[in-house]
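Input record (one chain):
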Amino acid sequence: MQLTQEDLALLGHCPFFRGCSPTLIGQVSDVEGADLVGFSAGQVVYSPQDFRRCLGVLLSGQFQVTKGTLAVSTLEPGELFGAAALYSDTPEYATTITAKRPSRCLLLDQSLVDRLLGEEPLIRENYLRYLTSRIRFLSGRLQSLAQSGAEGRLARYLLANNRDGVLTCSATDLAQRLGISRASLYRAFEELEHGGLIFRQGKTITIPNLPALEGVL
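The corresponding structure, as predicted from the sequence alone:
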Protein backbone atom coordinates (compact mmCIF):
# COMPACT_ATOMS: atom_id res chain seq x y z
CA MET A 1 0.00 0.00 0.00
CA GLN A 2 1.10 3.54 -0.76
CA LEU A 3 0.11 6.83 0.79
CA THR A 4 -2.46 8.74 -1.24
CA GLN A 5 -2.78 12.50 -1.53
CA GLU A 6 -5.70 12.25 0.91
CA ASP A 7 -3.40 10.41 3.35
CA LEU A 8 -0.77 13.15 3.10
CA ALA A 9 -3.38 15.85 3.68
CA LEU A 10 -4.74 13.96 6.70
CA LEU A 11 -1.27 13.46 8.18
CA GLY A 12 -0.59 17.17 7.78
CA HIS A 13 -3.42 17.88 10.20
CA CYS A 14 -2.84 15.06 12.70
CA PRO A 15 -1.35 15.99 16.10
CA PHE A 16 2.13 14.62 15.28
CA PHE A 17 2.69 16.15 11.82
CA ARG A 18 0.48 19.25 12.13
CA GLY A 19 1.95 22.07 10.06
CA CYS A 20 4.63 19.91 8.37
CA SER A 21 5.07 20.08 4.62
CA PRO A 22 3.70 17.27 2.40
CA THR A 23 7.28 16.75 1.19
CA LEU A 24 8.57 16.03 4.70
CA ILE A 25 5.62 13.77 5.49
CA GLY A 26 6.11 11.86 2.24
CA GLN A 27 9.80 11.39 2.99
CA VAL A 28 9.07 10.11 6.49
CA SER A 29 6.58 7.53 5.21
CA ASP A 30 9.20 6.07 2.83
CA VAL A 31 12.05 5.54 5.29
CA GLU A 32 12.93 2.52 7.39
CA GLY A 33 10.79 2.39 10.50
CA ALA A 34 7.60 3.57 8.80
CA ASP A 35 5.04 0.88 8.01
CA LEU A 36 1.68 1.27 6.26
CA VAL A 37 -0.65 -1.45 7.59
CA GLY A 38 -4.21 -2.52 6.80
CA PHE A 39 -6.71 -4.27 9.07
CA SER A 40 -9.99 -6.01 8.33
CA ALA A 41 -13.17 -5.38 10.33
CA GLY A 42 -12.96 -7.11 13.70
CA GLN A 43 -9.19 -7.62 13.55
CA VAL A 44 -7.24 -6.85 16.73
CA VAL A 45 -4.69 -4.09 16.14
CA TYR A 46 -3.11 -4.02 19.62
CA SER A 47 -3.78 -6.25 22.61
CA PRO A 48 -2.12 -6.40 26.04
CA GLN A 49 0.04 -9.33 24.87
CA ASP A 50 0.51 -8.48 21.18
CA PHE A 51 1.53 -4.94 20.24
CA ARG A 52 4.34 -2.93 18.64
CA ARG A 53 6.36 -0.13 20.22
CA CYS A 54 5.24 2.28 17.55
CA LEU A 55 3.33 5.52 17.29
CA GLY A 56 0.37 4.98 14.98
CA VAL A 57 -1.79 7.34 12.95
CA LEU A 58 -5.17 6.05 11.78
CA LEU A 59 -5.58 6.93 8.08
CA SER A 60 -8.96 5.43 7.29
CA GLY A 61 -11.63 3.32 8.99
CA GLN A 62 -12.29 3.30 12.72
CA PHE A 63 -10.66 1.73 15.80
CA GLN A 64 -12.39 0.80 19.06
CA VAL A 65 -10.33 1.06 22.26
CA THR A 66 -11.45 -1.16 25.14
CA LYS A 67 -10.22 -2.04 28.63
CA GLY A 68 -11.62 -5.44 29.47
CA THR A 69 -15.36 -5.07 28.86
CA LEU A 70 -15.28 -1.27 29.17
CA ALA A 71 -15.37 0.78 25.96
CA VAL A 72 -12.77 3.53 26.42
CA SER A 73 -12.89 5.49 23.17
CA THR A 74 -13.31 5.34 19.41
CA LEU A 75 -10.45 6.47 17.16
CA GLU A 76 -11.22 8.28 13.92
CA PRO A 77 -8.91 9.03 10.95
CA GLY A 78 -6.17 11.47 11.93
CA GLU A 79 -5.96 10.34 15.56
CA LEU A 80 -2.85 8.86 17.19
CA PHE A 81 -2.47 5.65 19.18
CA GLY A 82 0.34 3.62 20.75
CA ALA A 83 2.04 6.43 22.66
CA ALA A 84 1.60 4.53 25.93
CA ALA A 85 3.87 1.75 24.66
CA LEU A 86 6.44 3.82 22.79
CA TYR A 87 8.80 4.62 25.67
CA SER A 88 7.56 2.13 28.24
CA ASP A 89 9.27 -1.05 29.41
CA THR A 90 5.96 -2.52 30.58
CA PRO A 91 5.52 -5.96 28.96
CA GLU A 92 1.78 -5.47 28.44
CA TYR A 93 -0.18 -2.83 26.54
CA ALA A 94 -2.80 -0.99 28.59
CA THR A 95 -5.81 -1.54 26.31
CA THR A 96 -7.11 -3.54 23.34
CA ILE A 97 -7.54 -1.80 19.99
CA THR A 98 -9.83 -3.42 17.42
CA ALA A 99 -10.71 -2.33 13.88
CA LYS A 100 -14.46 -1.65 13.75
CA ARG A 101 -14.34 -1.57 9.94
CA PRO A 102 -11.64 -2.05 7.27
CA SER A 103 -8.90 0.37 8.31
CA ARG A 104 -5.42 1.59 7.38
CA CYS A 105 -2.78 3.16 9.59
CA LEU A 106 0.79 4.42 9.47
CA LEU A 107 3.09 3.02 12.17
CA LEU A 108 6.31 4.83 13.14
CA ASP A 109 8.70 2.78 15.25
CA GLN A 110 10.54 4.16 18.26
CA SER A 111 13.87 4.72 16.47
CA LEU A 112 12.17 6.79 13.75
CA VAL A 113 10.21 8.82 16.30
CA ASP A 114 13.48 9.42 18.18
CA ARG A 115 15.10 10.79 15.03
CA LEU A 116 12.14 13.00 14.13
CA LEU A 117 11.93 14.45 17.64
CA GLY A 118 15.65 15.24 17.52
CA GLU A 119 15.75 16.70 14.00
CA GLU A 120 12.37 18.42 13.56
CA PRO A 121 11.55 21.12 16.16
CA LEU A 122 7.94 21.44 14.92
CA ILE A 123 7.31 17.69 15.33
CA ARG A 124 8.91 17.77 18.79
CA GLU A 125 6.63 20.65 19.83
CA ASN A 126 3.60 18.89 18.33
CA TYR A 127 4.31 15.70 20.24
CA LEU A 128 4.79 17.50 23.54
CA ARG A 129 1.48 19.29 22.98
CA TYR A 130 -0.18 15.96 22.23
CA LEU A 131 1.18 14.32 25.38
CA THR A 132 0.05 17.30 27.45
CA SER A 133 -3.46 17.04 26.01
CA ARG A 134 -3.54 13.32 26.83
CA ILE A 135 -2.60 14.04 30.45
CA ARG A 136 -5.44 16.54 30.69
CA PHE A 137 -7.84 14.09 29.04
CA LEU A 138 -6.93 11.28 31.44
CA SER A 139 -7.23 13.64 34.39
CA GLY A 140 -10.72 14.48 33.22
CA ARG A 141 -11.60 10.81 32.91
CA LEU A 142 -10.45 10.20 36.49
CA GLN A 143 -12.58 13.11 37.68
CA SER A 144 -15.50 11.66 35.75
CA LEU A 145 -15.13 8.32 37.51
CA ALA A 146 -14.89 10.06 40.85
CA GLN A 147 -17.96 12.18 40.19
CA SER A 148 -20.91 10.71 42.07
CA GLY A 149 -24.11 10.11 40.13
CA ALA A 150 -24.84 9.31 36.50
CA GLU A 151 -25.75 12.94 35.76
CA GLY A 152 -22.30 14.16 36.78
CA ARG A 153 -20.52 11.41 34.87
CA LEU A 154 -22.53 12.17 31.76
CA ALA A 155 -21.89 15.91 32.03
CA ARG A 156 -18.14 15.42 32.43
CA TYR A 157 -17.98 13.03 29.50
CA LEU A 158 -19.91 15.39 27.23
CA LEU A 159 -17.70 18.32 28.21
CA ALA A 160 -14.51 16.32 27.58
CA ASN A 161 -15.50 14.72 24.28
CA ASN A 162 -17.76 17.12 22.37
CA ARG A 163 -16.66 18.80 19.19
CA ASP A 164 -18.01 22.33 18.88
CA GLY A 165 -20.82 21.44 21.24
CA VAL A 166 -21.87 18.25 19.45
CA LEU A 167 -21.24 14.57 20.21
CA THR A 168 -22.59 11.55 18.35
CA CYS A 169 -22.72 8.23 20.20
CA SER A 170 -25.26 5.47 20.73
CA ALA A 171 -26.81 5.09 24.18
CA THR A 172 -25.37 1.58 24.47
CA ASP A 173 -21.79 2.75 23.76
CA LEU A 174 -22.17 5.77 26.03
CA ALA A 175 -23.44 3.67 28.94
CA GLN A 176 -20.46 1.32 28.54
CA ARG A 177 -17.99 4.20 28.45
CA LEU A 178 -19.49 5.72 31.60
CA GLY A 179 -19.78 2.37 33.39
CA ILE A 180 -23.49 2.85 34.14
CA SER A 181 -26.70 1.10 33.13
CA ARG A 182 -28.83 2.31 30.21
CA ALA A 183 -31.62 3.08 32.68
CA SER A 184 -29.30 5.33 34.70
CA LEU A 185 -28.08 6.97 31.49
CA TYR A 186 -31.62 7.76 30.34
CA ARG A 187 -32.45 9.26 33.72
CA ALA A 188 -29.36 11.45 33.43
CA PHE A 189 -30.40 12.45 29.91
CA GLU A 190 -33.82 13.47 31.21
CA GLU A 191 -32.34 15.60 33.98
CA LEU A 192 -29.99 17.46 31.64
CA GLU A 193 -32.64 17.86 28.93
CA HIS A 194 -35.20 19.12 31.45
CA GLY A 195 -32.73 21.83 32.44
CA GLY A 196 -32.15 22.79 28.81
CA LEU A 197 -28.48 21.81 29.10
CA ILE A 198 -28.52 19.29 26.24
CA PHE A 199 -30.73 18.35 23.30
CA ARG A 200 -30.89 14.86 21.83
CA GLN A 201 -31.89 13.76 18.35
CA GLY A 202 -31.18 10.10 17.69
CA LYS A 203 -27.51 9.47 18.49
CA THR A 204 -26.59 13.17 18.32
CA ILE A 205 -26.29 15.20 21.53
CA THR A 206 -26.06 18.98 21.24
CA ILE A 207 -24.79 21.19 24.06
CA PRO A 208 -26.15 24.72 23.50
CA ASN A 209 -24.19 26.30 26.35
CA LEU A 210 -20.98 24.63 27.54
CA PRO A 211 -20.46 26.88 30.61
CA ALA A 212 -24.01 26.09 31.74
CA LEU A 213 -23.32 22.36 31.54
CA GLU A 214 -20.13 22.87 33.56
CA GLY A 215 -22.35 24.26 36.29
CA VAL A 216 -23.71 20.74 36.88
CA LEU A 217 -20.31 19.85 38.33
